[in-house]
Fold this protein.
Amino acid sequence: MKFLFIGNSHTFRNDMPHIFQMICEKNGIDAQVTMLAHGGKTLAFHQAEPEVRFNILYGNYDYIILQDRQKDFSPDGALEAGTAIDQFIQQTPSKKILYMPWTVPQEKMLQAQVAGGYYRLGRAIHASVAPVGLLWWEYMDRHPGENLFMDDNRHATPKGATLAAYTIYQTIFGEPAVILKPEDSDITALVNARIKEYVSEQYIASL
């Protein structure tokens, strides 16, 4: 299976798509990953990039994973740009996944607003949403002694990137993953227990 990740540093830090690939392979899925990601960029940036259009149209991807910016996220901007990118995707058989990132600590209370923007875009383009940001903050609340943020309080530690990769995996395949390492068990337990609620119609309607 072929996967295209389109995003920014919250996609490329810690080589998160490679972690996703390793999870796939651990679970018996032959995965090839491609990444188009530039630091600080939005979906509006990617919408205008020739390499994005070309890869979508001719890359023969099974899944395309889209991620907008983290800080100062604009739901309206994401909707406009995501809808434009979807015009390319609709010309292919590729399925769409939206990768919802976490907010920075000082904007933690805005995570529900960010989630609402991603689910709104998901409804508009018929894409599933990987609720990484929601599971991120739930993990942090449940494990107050741990920090998934790097020292810049923006980007993910390797464990945070692993949480993102497992969440995207389960959003796509709908089944719990065989874990890569024993130390991933607390992350996978949370994803397995909570992801269905975060993608349920009742939860989305509550935003």
Observations:
- The mean pLDDT is 94.
- The first strand starts at residue 2 and ends at 7.
